[in-house]
Design brief:
The structure holds three protein chains of three kinds. By secondary structure, chain A is an all-alpha fold. A two-stranded antiparallel sheet of chain A has the order 1-2. In chain A, a hairpin with a 2-residue loop joins β1 and β2. In chain A, α3 packs antiparallel against α4 and α4 runs antiparallel to α5. The radius of gyration of chain A is 24 Å and the shape is flat. Chain B is α/β, with parallel strands linked by helices. Chain B has two domains: 163 residues, D-Maltodextrin-Binding Protein, domain 2 (3-Layer(aba) Sandwich); 118 residues, D-Maltodextrin-Binding Protein, domain 2 (3-Layer(aba) Sandwich). In chain B, the strands form two sheets. A six-stranded mixed sheet of chain B has the order 2-1-3-10-4-11, with helices on both faces. In chain B, β1, α2 and β2 form a beta-alpha-beta unit. In chain B, α4 packs across α12. The longest helix of chain B has 21 residues. Chain B is globular and about 65 Å long. Chain C has one domain. Chains in contact: A-B, A-C, B-C. At the A-C interface, α1, β1, β2, α2 and α3 of A face α2, α3, α8, α10 and α20 of C.
Chain lengths: 153, 322, 506
């Protein structure tokens, strides 16, 4: 817990530093028209750095030996996170609908151990339903890949 | 819905089959609006899309997509990246010039394929109807008497409204306090509520408040009066103030870089048909927009001249990226 | 003005065709409201081209009904999955989701829908009888008044959070900083984009919320091994009647929420801050504030009443002044012009059948709407019975679609994943998420209003006090800021032991 608290606080301080850097470029002063573009970001970031520094000190001084995530808990979390990241990555290449089908199928079979019939049914019907709702009814285009191009969508 | 669409799909595929026929869209056309929902550009894009649908002018729908981030930079850069794509269109306003000039984003209109100009939007100098200023001359005299105390409201910063304000200031030797707002409708309401003293709103943004007797138009920023019944009594800036300050905003369409020639021809034809419908003409009249359809070399020439104009105006106003 | 006109309106609104149009609109709107990322504005914009062939009154009924549907629908995913379908449903998650986790999803949904309806009705009645007068009041609101309102929204939350105040501060600061990324409309400069095109559009509030609340919550719940299980609600409509029996207890919250919603909504201020403010006030005035955030029904009633009251009130400036009170109204306004109507103050005189048809349809639309969504409460609640391994991928995909739909940009799906991880880490380290979200949604508006005001006054802060309306609101806001300091002092003065009212973070 201590390490995680420290890492988070440090990360936010670095972020604050980046903001300060850009705010200075924009001008942090107060012109005749009121504050310049960088005025608010600058002071917000300075406050952020200060608050995080205190939180960091608190994290160090309070000996909280609990781990941030236990090994037993990390497993299920990663089992949700990695497939989600994979979904986003492959969406860029093969489009959202095919990725959604693959993702649903893999997840249902791997985590849920559902029967192949159920897997197939959901993995086909769900993307198909979303396709019609978004592309046909609401005319909201989603990322599409080679399959949709081949079908002339 | 499903079966219907599937059938329609088959029909379209069959219809599109004959080789050698003129180009036609084979999938939905993404129609990018580099501005938010509800503004002038968005309205026109949705009108074009609706008219194409209503009169069955396009075999595939035009799907309007707003990409307004960074004063339109998001939309322009997105279309710039779709080289050779024949199924994307973008409607532009003056931010075609002002956004790259002011923010320095890597974009120029030459990155796109010009298709056609649909209309030009007018600008009018408005004041609140409760003020005593009946003519532009009276108002300007008042501004001159008390410099830096009259507030001019406008859309955004370093965009058309501010450019026009600076032009007016430089031509007449005045100084306004320019207050930027998010959209044209908001600007006019702030005029009605007396939070600003004057605006340079497009006609359509203030028209209803004018009819209700809340605001007063003083002058049109054009070389000639607006030739529509209710607007034709408003003098031009030249008539009212003796200086020639004029400015119009482009409502035109572009395609991605390297759009195939066949596709460009098809879109020009489509847009001409849309332009000629009574619906579109009625929209132009009611919004007091200047009908101005051109395409091809004439369009390119116009855009080139206007780019030059914007560079000069923005340089004079100190609005170019430093 | 009033009754006979309204009667004329009803003759138009209750023709079978217009009722049919309303039903279609509400059904589509509810779907749009459920899908995060697809807001009322998108829905209305998408259907707009289809309305060109309809009579204008039917067209506006279709679009407004869709908007009512979206207002009702926004609560559904907030309560069931902690994913706000619409920005104004964020506050509904605070208590709605814990209720669902305790197996009272049906009750929470009933409360949400009923509150929405009550809020709507309140606003519609005011619009019916006082529209022109209220429009004049709306005109008095310039940038200084808007800033004062934003200040008031923030101040209402002060002292309500528990836990480490420094961590609440960090959350707020982070929200403000994220809201500043992108184009600064006051100067036209790009802030904190470092040349990246993807940063130019800034961080969209809804993407952040989908990630922080939706994805973050999935991660938290799998870690706790809860996996959405154990939630069982009766499959019949008994739950609706049972909840109705409890709701009259919250009469004051209804009135307060409706009032806050209406007065925040009838000028471009919005349903989202109204819902937050109403929640904060409900907690502040509650006899047991410690129950808020843990599944208190009143915590669902307050934001939903205000959100729907504000959503309806947003129509007022559109009808009377021709200015949009919300992004959705902005698109409808475009529709008016395309249908050949001139929006603005003269609409009442020139097209009474249109205006009064629309107002009457607000009554019919919301009545149909509340009956439709209530009828489906058991079905919505039953969604939670779907096995976890099916529900999780479906939710993740729907969240991804929602994030993409906001700007049609892949990067937003990445932001969603990143915000999901941030939400998970923050929750584990006890950084409250609500202040971050509040700052993200209001930061941009507040800063613009502040700087516009300062341009108007040439840099003098006196403008906020010198103007009567903003002066009063600012004073109330300052009072609220000072309240956490003053209350214990006041109590001690009266000899009452100071009670620590602050509880779990909201």
């Amino acid at each position: 817990m201590r390490a995680a608290g420290l890492v988070t606080a440090s990360f936010l301080m670095v972020l604050g530093g980046v903001v300060v850097f850009d705010a200075v470029r924009l001008g942090i002063g107060w012109s005749t028209d009121g504050p310049k573009s960088g005025f608010f970001p600058f002071w917000l970031a300075v406050l952020l750095i200060a608050a995080c520094a205190v939180i960091g000190v608190q994290a160090v001084s309070r000996a909280d030996a609990r781990p941030f995530v236990g090994r037993a808990q990390l497993g299920p979390v990663l089992k949700v996170l990695w497939p989600a990241v994979a979904l986003v990555v492959i969406t860029q290449w093969i489009g959202l609908y095919v990725s959604a089908a693959l993702y649903t199928a893999v997840y249902m079979r791997w985590i849920g151990r559902h029967s192949w019939l159920a897997v197939l049914a959901v993995a086909v019907l769900f993307p198909l339903a979303t396709f019609f709702i978004f592309e046909k009814w609401f005319l909201v285009p989603m990322p599409k890949g080679p399959l949709e191009a081949w079908l002339g969508q | 819905m499903g079966l219907h669409s599937a059938l329609a799909l088959v029909l379209v595929l069959v219809a599109a089959a004959p080789a050698g026929a003129a180009w036609e869209p084979t999938k939905p056309i993404e129609f990018v609006v580099p501005a938010g929902t509800g503004g002038g550009a968005d309205q026109m894009a949705r009108l074009i899309s609706g008219i194409a649908e209503k009169h069955k002018l396009s075999p595939r729908p035009l799907i309007v997509v707003n990409k307004s981030g960074g004063a339109g930079a998001e939309g322009f850069l997105d279309v710039k990246g779709k080289k050779g794509d024949a199924h994307t269109l973008i409607i532009t306003l003056s931010n075609l010039f002002t956004t790259p000039l002011h923010t320095g984003i890597p974009f120029n209109w030459r990155d796109l394929t010009p298709i056609s100009r649909m209309a030009l939007d007018q600008f009018i100098l408005w004041v609140n109807a409760e003020t005593p200023y009946k003519t532009a001359k009276e108002y300007i005299a008042a501004v001159k008497a008390k410099p830096t105390s009259f507030k001019m409201g406008g859309t955004g910063s370093a965009q058309e409204d501010q450019i026009l304000t600076i032009q007016l200031e430089q031509a007449l030797g005045l100084k306004f306090i320019y207050v930027p707002f998010k959209g044209g409708g908001e600007v006019c309401v702030n005029l009605v509520g007396n939070h600003v003293d004057s605006t340079v709103n497009n006609p359509i943004e203030c028209a209803s408040h004018w009819k209700a007797g809340r605001v007063r138009p003083l002058a049109v920023f054009d070389t000639a009066r607006i030739p529509v019944a209710e607007w034709k009594d408003i003098p031009t800036v030249k008539e009212a103030l003796g200086v020639d300050v004029h400015y119009q905003m482009l409502r035109g369409l572009f395609g991605p870089p390297g759009m195939p020639k066949d596709a460009v021809d098809w879109y020009v034809d489509l847009l001409k048909k849309v332009y000629d419908t009574p619906d579109f003409q009625k929209y132009l009249t009611e919004g007091a927009l200047k009908p101005a359809f051109v395409s091809g070399a004439d369009y390119v020439k116009w855009v080139e001249e206007n780019e030059q104009l914007h560079m000069e105006l923005m340089a004079k106003g100190g609005l170019l990226k430093k | 003005m009033g009754i006979e006109n309204l009667f004329l309106g009803f003759q138009i609104a209750i023709t079978p065709y217009n009722l049919f149009v309303a039903v279609i609109g509400i059904a589509l709107g509810t779907i749009i409201g459920v899908l995060p990322g697809l807001g009322g504005a998108n829905g209305v914009a998408i259907l707009l081209p289809l309305t060109f062939t309809m009579p204008p009154t039917s067209a506006i009924i279709l679009l407004t009904s869709l908007y009512w549907g979206a207002l009702f629908g926004g609560a559904i995913t907030s309560i069931l999955f902690n994913i706000p379908g619409e920005p104004w449903s964020v506050a509904t998650t605070f208590d709605g989701y814990p209720l669902a986790r305790q197996g009272q999803g049906g009750q929470a949904l009933t409360a949400a829908f009923t509150s929405s309806f009550v809020g709507a009705l309140f606003s519609i009645v005011l619009i019916t009888f006082f529209a022109p007068l209220l429009a004049e009041i709306a005109l008095k609101f310039g940038p200084p008044e808007f800033f004062a309102i934003q200040l008031l929204t923030f101040s209402s939350f002060v002292g309500l959070g528990g836990g480490n105040p420094l961590k609440s501060l960090v959350s707020i600061l982070l929200g403000f900083i994220l809201s500043a990324v992108g184009l600064d409309i006051v100067t036209g400069q790009l802030r904190m984009t470092f040349g990246f095109v993807d940063l130019m559009k800034g961080f969209d509030f809804i993407v952040a919320v989908i990630g922080l609340f939706g994805i973050g919550e999935i991660l938290i719940s799998v870690e706790e091994g809860l996996s959405f299980r154990g939630v069982r609600t009766g499959m019949n409509l008994r739950v609706v009647l049972d909840t109705w029996r409890i709701l009259p207890r919250y009469a004051r919250t209804f009135v307060r929420g409706a009032f806050i919603g209406f007065w925040m909504g009838f000028k471009p201020g919005g349903a989202t801050p109204a819902s937050f403010m109403s929640y904060a006030f409900a907690k502040r005035f509650s006899r047991n504030p410690e129950r808020f955030g843990r599944g208190e029904l009143e915590g669902v009633v307050a934001p939903e009443t205000a959100a729907h009251a504000a959503g309806v009130a947003a129509m007022l400036p559109m009808i009377t002044l021709g200015i949009p009170g919300s992004p959705t109204a902005a698109v409808m306004l475009g529709g008016l012009i395309i249908w050949g109507l001139q929006p603005g103050p003269l609409l009442f005189k020139e097209k009474p059948e249109f205006v009064w048809g629309l107002i009457a349809s607000m009554y019919t639309g919301n009545i149909i709407g509340v009956l439709m969504v209530l009828a489906f409460v058991p079905l919505f609640a039953a969604i939670l019975r779907i096995p976890f391994a099916i529900l999780t991928p479906v939710i993740v995909v729907v969240c991804a679609i929602g994030s993409y739909a906001v700007h049609n940009n892949m990067i937003d799906i990445w932001y969603m994943v990143i915000f999901g991880v941030v939400g998970y880490v923050f929750k584990k380290l006890d950084y409250p998420l609500a202040p971050l979200v509040l700052a993200l949604v209001l930061g941009d508006l507040a800063e613009n209003a502040l700087r516009q005001s300062l341009i108007m006054s040439q840099g003098s802060l006196a403008i906020f006090i010198a103007r009567p309306i903003s002066g009063v609101i600012t004073a109330v806001a300052i009072l609220f800021f000072a309240l956490p300091v003053l209350t214990p002092w006041w109590r001690r003065l009266r000899g009452v032991p100071a009670v620590r009212r602050a509880t779990r973070e909201i």
